[in-house]
Amino acid sequence: MKISLTLNNRPKTFDVAPDEYLVDTLRRYGYTSVRRGCDTTSCGVCTLLVDDKPVPSCAFLSARADGARLTTVEGIPETASKLAEHFGERGADQCGFCNPGIALAVHSMEQSGMPADDATIDHYLVGNLCRCTGYQSQREAIKAYLGDKK
Amino acid sequence: MKKTKTVNQQVPSVDGKGIMMGRPAFTDDLTPRNALVIKVLRSPHAFAKITSIDTSEAERIEGVELILTHKDFKRNAYTRAGQGYPEPSPHDKFVLDEYVRYVGDEVAAVAAVDEATAEAAVKAIDVEYEKLDPVLDFETAKDNDTLVHPEDDIYEMFPIGFDPKRNVAASYHMEVGDVEKTLSESEITVENTYYTQAQAHVMLEPHTVNAQLDYQNRLVLISATQTPWHVRRILSQTLEIPLSRIRVIKPRVGGGFGGKQAIHGEMLAAAVTMRTGQPSRLTYTREEVFESSYTRHPMRMTIRMGAKRDGTITSIDFHGLSDTGAYGEHALTVYMVTGSKVLPLYNKVDAVRFQGDIVYTNHVSSGAYRGYGAVQGNYAVESTIDMLAEKLGMDPFALREKNMMLENETSPIFEIMGEGTEGTAMVMESNKLDYCVARGKELIGYDEKYPRRETGESKVRSIGGAIAMQGSGIPYIDMGAATIKLNDDGFYNLTVGATDIGQGSDTILAQIAAEQLGVAVDKVIVYSSDTDLTPFDVGAYASSTTYVSGNAVLKAARSMRRMVIDEAARTLDVNAEDITFEGEVFKVEGSAPLTLSDLSNRLYYNEDQKQLTTTGSYYGTKSPPPFMAGFVEIELDTETGEYEILEYASVVDCGTTINPALARGQVEGGLMQGIGMAAFEDVEYSKKGKMITGDLLNYKIPTNLSVKKFTTEFADSYEESGPYGAKSVAEIGTDTPPAAIANAVYNAVGVRIDSLPITPEKIQKAMNDKKENDV
Ligand code: FES
Ligand code: FES
What we know:
The complex is a heterodimer. By secondary structure, chain A is of the alpha+beta class. The radius of gyration of chain A is 15 Å and the shape is globular. The model of chain A has no long low-confidence stretch (mean pLDDT 95). Chain A is 37% helix and 15% strand. The termini of chain A are far apart. Chain A has 2 domains: 2-74, Ubiquitin-like (UB roll) (Roll); 76-148, [2Fe-2S]-binding domain (DNA polymerase, domain 1, Orthogonal Bundle), CATH 1.10.150. In chain A, helix 2 crosses helix 5. Chain B is α+β, with helices and mostly antiparallel strands. Chain B has 4 domains: 16-23 and 479-619, Aldehyde Oxidoreductase, domain 4; 31-132 and 207-283, Aldehyde oxidase/xanthine dehydrogenase, a/b hammerhead (Aldehyde Oxidoreductase, domain 3, Alpha-Beta Complex), CATH 3.90.1170.50; 134-197 and 295-373 and 383-404, Aldehyde oxidase/xanthine dehydrogenase, molybdopterin binding domain (Aldehyde Oxidoreductase, domain 4, 2-Layer Sandwich); 426-477 and 620-775, Aldehyde Oxidoreductase, domain 4 (2-Layer Sandwich), CATH 3.30.365. In chain B, 27% of the residues lie in helices and 23% in strands. In chain B, the strands form 6 sheets. In chain B, strands 3-5-1-12-9-10-11 form a 7-stranded mixed beta sheet, with helices on both faces. In chain B, strand 18 and strand 19 form a beta hairpin. The longest helix of chain B is centred in the C-terminal third of the chain and has 28 residues, at 545-572. At the A-B interface, helix 2, helix 3, helix 4 and helix 5 of A face helix 1 and helix 17 of B. The site of one FE2/S2 (inorganic) cluster has 11 residues of chain A, from loops.
């Protein structure tokens, strides 16, 4: 079946199977920044913004995305680039497999105007697993990034 | 230390931004669009012999291109371990075999045009099994009626104690002095037995590989591997493809932690592409990563320690048993490190013995995993130290300070124990363990807080700690190499075999080169790990990259620096000694300065044209250990046994930190994995041997809520033999949490948890048992 949607502000039409998930559709069409880390909606690696809300694209049927507004990390280059600088300063960037998902989550947190304190950041990002860092460096970097924006 | 501009400075990673911005980087991002999808049929039984495989129905499915079973492969026993050659691991694995030895072992592989077709074909394969009695308890494995490896065409490369007819993959024994005698003469002795569990690596990028034949008809693999050269060699030997026809490219890797040191899908992807001529790809599902890759070796360790009443430790006896699972990857070497990277901490003993067997069972194979035995041994020894301190009526850190190895000291164990072979004698030229302990105590507030404080009705806060050491590569075995090339406009390419798997080695190696060459890091374009394009490196393991590969980079950079100065001297028609050169401009008194950019443009376009390139290689003649002291403060609920980690304070001596932010990342990331192992991570099996924690719902890893605070500092230390004074830092973080948390729990409520993970249930039960005994 065909779905039409907006991806990073550009209109797109994708041919999808009815049981296909967005992560697989997007990868198939070459949007490889959206990656898969698990089969159980547990890791947050596949995070995507659907109508500005972070969702795990591994559990979002592509068919349901018809008419939706999708954002991958390529759609938020400024956030990603600035956030990367803060990550770099604190050793929070290791393998980076989790990073695009985190950038998208942070972007949506920023949009929603939530307070940039530790507890809010932790709560908002608890679904974005990372096996390389101890999280603290990420938390500090995110806080610094959100603080910069104030 | 001399003043440095780049090394030991805040330098952003060379790749962090591109990765964060989502650029194609990882193996699966680089898979050819038309690649056949490989799916593997895996064993539902813990141990069985395949009596028949009927693939005819699966073959008839449209879109199925190839089905491989054990009948399609010559029986070449190999090891997936991914170690130096000859390997200290038994060659006990076949690409596909008529026996399946654990739930998840490979039975057959299907290559099809897409995932759905491949999955349908896997389901359509009809296999008959003769079920065999599995060995699921490693303590009964040796001399069990069941032989996990009954076949005769498996072998060891050199003596490692391999005895498959007794289910023994390897075994080891060493003794310094007379342990029994020393123990019997000791005024105080303690003894305890510990168990450590299987831990899963859970790197977020699953094992992934793709293969294709290029236009020279060579096999090209892009693989998420820590060891491209080992992969190439093992593929060549096992599939009998000439080494010169294989190219292995390591792109960005999404974490490894030892799990990607070994061969995973490479063998099947190579076989499919060689036979079909078509590109292929194999990406493990998360379930396959859990069930069909590796875990940390579970162990049982019995420690006996003897001491004089004044707190002098006189002897340590370490007797262990390690479960290598179905195949013997890293069996001997992980076990040896359990002793060799722990026991030298207490180097003043009169006698020390270390022995044990590593046995086969029908569990998922155990393999390399950050900490690599040291974390298991550390838990056992550092828990026992606290027990001994209590019996002596001493503060446990006073006991450590009295007995631990200091700078300029050595231990006979270094010479006796290597990794799979004999070791290398060495003196600790840099060892700031005394500072690490003293500073760590300050950071955690030891003097005020040790051992415990009541903080509420049923809440206590307590402190526990441990010390640790690791190594920096394997001396005389691990080799790394680096090539530096000058470009026009005066910037450099640095190509290294060293495999960045997310730990940041590309960045720190570029920093080392930039420091020596006197340029900014962005003038050094680094490219890592491609068996065709970069020089050799054993790969990312054994905490070797900074020290071994870093030294190779330093050698190459020194040589390049001499080369450009010589060329400048020729151009300026002066003696090289008359030139002052920081890195960008050649200055000579009395004549106009020449820039590196002008020199290189001239070299490539105008006069006396030539390419400047140079290669440095290095192998260690010792393995200077990093050291650390780790302290944890927990708050424990005495009713439920639940505890929270309030702070983990560590002070690490890893020599110079080439990149302090990345070093901190290594330490805290390692700590988090050690904390996961200490507190709750646990690979569990059903009675029939099926893993019941095969996904992220049932196997939990730490989240951002798991630890309240890390405080991480580095000791001021300089290792003469390291590049700019650096030692390794990749693994040591993992080592202290199990013992530190066990000691903290003991200090909170007086129960010693001697099996990992240290769960609230175990604490509660131990407290109840204690209450009953006390009555
Ligand atoms: S892939 Fe893990 S949550 Fe989607
Ligand atoms: S940086 Fe590797 S998973 Fe987060």
